[in-house]
Amino acid sequence: MATTAASSWSQKISAFSLSPSQFLSSTTSECFLAELLHELRDDKASENTKILLLSALQEYPNVLCPSPMTTADGKELKSIISLLLEESYLLTPVFQAALLRELVEVVAMVQALSPAIFKSQLLRLFGTVEVTLLHATLLMKAIFTDSLFTTEDENFFIKRLVGMAQHPLLSNPQKLFYMDCILHFPENRPISCNGEESLPVLVTPRLATSLLPTVFNDSSTMLCRLRLLSLVYMEADEDDDKGVSYLFDHLMALHRIVDNHGTREMTVTFFRAAFTFLSYFYHSEKFISDLTGRLCELYSRHCYLAPNINNLVDRAQECLGESSWPIQLLKALQTRIVELPLPQLTLQSFSWHLKVLGRVAREGQVPQRNTLRFLLRVLINSSVCKAGGWQLGNAVLAVCRNLLLHPSLDQVFIELADLLQHMTHHYEETDIQDHARFYYTLLTNLSREKLSGVLAKGPDVGPAKVRSLSSIMAESDGLSSCLTIHQTKQSVLQLVKVQESRMHEALGEGKYMSLENEEVIKVYQEQFLSPGFGSEVILKCHLTQMEDLEELYHKLFSICLHFDLTDSNYDEVSDVTVPCLFKDRKPPVIQLKLKPRQPYPTCLRARAVFTTEDGMSWYTQLEDVSVAFPDIFLPLPVKLDWSQESKEQLFDQIWRCTCSEEPSQSATSLYCFELRDHSLCDLIEQNFHPYLISKDLKQDLYKVLFFLPPQYHVLLNITNAEDAVQVSIVTDNWKLLPYINSYLQNITSKIEKHAETTVDVPFCRIDDVPCEIQVK
User: Partner of 144 for a Cys bridge, out of 60, 115, 211, 729, CB 3.0 to 4.6 A?
Assistant: First the structure.
C-alpha cells in the first residue's frame, strides 16, 4: 500500500513539475499544498517520498503559496520540519544529507522560519564521520553563518576538521578531503569573498602544529599540508620565523632524499614542494638565496634534473611575475655550467647542460657571452663535433636560435658567428651543418626586425597551425603532434603476388662453353664458395590500395613496408620503401628479397608507415604475405654460357652423388599419376619449363631440377609409361618430400577429375628395404 502511495505521489509531482498551471487547473493550490503537508506529517511515508515533496515545495514556493503565509501556516510548516529533523537520525546517511539540504533551502526561503530550528542537530552533525553529512553541515554553515553558528560552534567545528585531517584510521583521500574543508571553510565573518583558498581566522599556528608535514607522509598529503602551513605562517605575525624555518628544513630534507638518488615520485614531490614554498615566501631573501644555492648544488651532482629545473623556472615566472628569483637561479646555473672543466663533461651531461643553457638564452636580462664562449670551447677542444650526433647538434642549435632573438645580440654577434661557422665546417652531421649555415646567413644578412619576424612563431590559422616542410620551429613548438604516427581504422594497403609468365626461350644449341665430364660438378660447387651465391629468392608483389577507401588515402607518400617473420627458417627481411602510390595509377611492383635458412613455406606479417597529402603520418597493418613452396624454386644456378650438354652432365652427376650420400640427408621417392587425354609435353611446358634440363620427345623423357636456397636440390626424372606417368624424385634434403608430394598433387589434380592413380613412396631412403607400392 505504501508503495502504491509513493508511486502516486511520484506521478503527481512529475505532472506538476511538467506544467504547474495545467496541473492546478483540476484542483487549487491550497488543496494540493494541504495534501502535500499532510503527506509530510505521515509517519508511514518513505524518506524518498518526503524528499520529493520538499523538492517540489522548494522549487515552486510562489505557485504553491501565492498568498503571504499566515501565522498558522508558519507554525504548521515549522512543526513538520521539526518532526522531520527529529526522525532524520533513522534515515541512512545519504538520505539524511539529502533531507537536510532540502530543509535548509526551505528555511532559507521562508522568513518566518528561524535557522535555530537546526540547533538541536548541530552536536550530532559535528561528531559525524560521514562525508555526505559533513557536506550538508558545511552548506548549512555557508547559508546561515552566525544566525545558526556561534563563535564557539565555529571554533569547535574547525578543531573537529583539524583532528579528522590527521586521524590515523582514515584513508589518505579522506584526510585530504578534511584538509580541503579547512582551506575552504565558510566563516561567519570572512575576510575574503573571492572563493579562493584562504585561511580561516581561527586556524592559528598553535592549532595547525599537528598538521606539520613530514617525509613519512605520502606525496599528496605532504604537499597539501605544506600549502596549509604556508598559509598559516605567511599570515602569522611572528618575528622569529620558527614556522617558516621548519617548512624550509622540511624542504631541505626532501632535497637530501633527492640528492641521494631518491625515487622519481620523491623528485617530483620535491620540486612541487619547492614551488609551493616559493609561492608564499618568495619575498624572504634569507630562504630564497639558500634555496637557490641548494638547487644549483643539486643540479651540479645530478644534471639529469635539467627538465625539472626548467619547469620550476617556467612555473615560477608564470605565478610570481614580480619576483626576480627565476632570473637569479638561471644566472647561478649558467655560472655553474660555464665554469665546468672539460674533463668533467660527457656527451650525456653536456646534452642536459644544453637544455638549461637554452632556457637561459631566452632571458633578456641574462648576459650570454659566457655561454657562447663555453660552447665554442667545448666544440673546439672535444670530440662533440665527431661523436655528438644529430640530437646533440640540434640542442646546440636550439641555444643559437634563442640567442638570435636575444636583446643583446649585438654584444655577442662575433661569438655567435664564430660558433655557427665552426659548426658549419666541422660538425659531422650534414643536417646540423646546413642549419648552422642557414642561421649564420640569417645572422649576417638580416636586420634585427627581419630576423625576429623570420624566427617568430607563426599565427594560428583555423583549427590547426599552418606548417610547411621548410618552416623553422622551436624545440617546443608542437613537434610532438607533428611526429605522431596515427593508426588507421582498417587496412589501407595490400600486397598481391605477380603472376609471372614462365615461358622462356626454347632449349637449343649456340655458342656455349663445354666442360669435361669431370669438371662439371667441380666448377658448379666452386660457385658456392662466393659469399651469398644463390642464397636469395626474389618474390615480386604489386603494392595496391584496398577498395572503398576514404579520399584521404588515395594519395600516399613515403611508404615504408616492414616485414616480420613467423618462424626461424629465414633471415630478416629488409624494409621496402615506395616513393608514392596513387589510386588512379598503375600499382608499383616491389621485390621482397628472401634468404632461406631452410627452404620451407612460410608466412610474413606486413605493416606499413606512410604519409598522406595533408602531411600526417599513418600506420596500417597489411594482410599476411604467404610464401608457398613453389615460390622458393630457382632454376639451375649456372652461368648463361653453359652448354646444354654440360647442364645434362651436371644433372646426372648430382643425381648419382645424391643417391650415394649418407641416408640421413638424401632420399628418393616415386610419384605416379594418370595422364588421360592430356599431353605430357604441354604439362611440362606449363609447370616446369624454367627448370627443365633436357627433354626427349621420342621417349617422353624429361629431366627437371629445382634449386632451393641456400644449397638444396630436387631432381625429377619424368617418363610416360604405358598406364601412368612416373616421376622419379631425388633430393638432398629428405624433409622436403612432403612439400614436393603436395606440389605434384596440386599440378596434376587438374587433369585427374574422376580417377587418380598414385604411387607415392614419400620417405623411402636409398638404403631402405624396398617399400610396398600401393595403387589408389
Answer: 115
Q: Which CATH number fits domain 633-748: 2.60.40.3200, 3.30.200.20, 3.30.310.10, 3.40.190.10?
A: 3.30.310.10
Q: Do residues 672 and 720 make contact, with C-beta atoms less than 8 angstroms apart?
A: no
Tell me, what's the pLDDT at 517? 63
Strand partners, 695: 702
Q: What is the dihedral of CA 719, 725, 731, 737, to 10 degrees?
A: 180
**pLDDT bracket for residue 518 (50, 70, 90):** low
Handedness of CA 502, 505, 506, 508 (dihedral sign): negative
Q: Are 493-501+510-630 and 633-748 the same fold in CATH?
A: no
Mean pLDDT of 402-427: 91
Choose among 735, 726, 733, 739: nearest CA to 773.
726
Checking DSSP bridges between strand 617-621 and strand 485-487, what pairing results, if any?
parallel
- The answer to whether 601 touches 634, Cβ cutoff 8 Å, is no
493-501+510-630 placed in CATH 2.60.40? yes
Q: How many CB atoms lie within 10 A of CB 629?
A: 19
Select from 711, 367, 313, 412 the least CA-distant residue to 533. Answer: 711
Dist. CA 145–CA 155, nearest whole Å: 13
pLDDT at 714 over 60: yes
Question: DSSP letter string over 87-138?
Answer: HGGGS-HHHHHHHHHHHHHHHHH-TTS-GGGGHHHHHHHHT---HHHHHHHH
Count of CA atoms in the C-beta half-sphere (13 A) of 444: 13
Q: Is 532 left (phi over 0), alpha (psi -120 to 50) or beta?
A: left
272 CB-near residues (< 8 Å, 6+ apart): 219, 223
| pTM, 2 dp | 0.55
